[in-house]
Amino acid sequence: MKAISLYEPWATLIALGEKRFETRSWSTTYRGPLLICASKVKLPILKVIEIMVRARITVNELNPGRAVALVDLVHVFHTEAWPVIHLGEDEKFYGDFSPGRFAWKLEKIRRFVNPPLVRGKQGLFNVPDDLIKNLDTYDPI
Q: Which of 18, 73, 74, 76 could bridge 34 with an S-S bond, Cβ 3.0-4.6 Å?
């Protein structure tokens, strides 16, 4: 199964259904199931607090070093060729939709009840399919 690591709180925003587009400086031809993993790396605290306050996320909801959700990556848009105006203000705030970037559309978001430990990597990486075989998920939407 393909996976990607994101800094917190962005990974949790996806797991909660608050963020449906992941913005990246690079594109991918991959489409299908994608494991969203929360990175252990910490960002500057002021930016993290700003995001968490806006999204009403508590520190207890973050899961660094764990897979937090399973999603379907259904489309990748070039930000210059896609009307960002259709996004809500929160979605715009949570992503970087500036020119030259790519917006990955995520659907069928399933949050893990008991997030498994995952060693993240840069870019898309593979994890064994059986990692999530017996995990309970629920749809946050």
A: 73
* Beta carbons within 8 Å of 8's beta carbon, 6+ residues apart: 38, 39, 42, 43, 48, 62, 63, 64
User: Beta strands of the chain (E only): which ranges?
Assistant: 2-6, 21-24, 32-38, 67-78, 102-112, 125-126, 137-138
Rounded to an integer, the average pLDDT of 67-82 is 92
Question: Which one-letter DSSP state was computed for residue 25?
Answer: S
CATH of the domain at 38: 2.30.130.30
User: pTM for the complete prediction?
Assistant: 0.86
φ, ψ for residue 83, nearest 5 deg = -75, 95
| Tally of domains within the chain | 1
How much is the pLDDT for 49? 82
Q: Assign 3-state DSSP to the chain and report helix, strand, coil percentages, each to 5.
A: 25, 30, 45
Q: Where in the sequence is the domain holding 94, given as residue range(s)?
A: 2-138
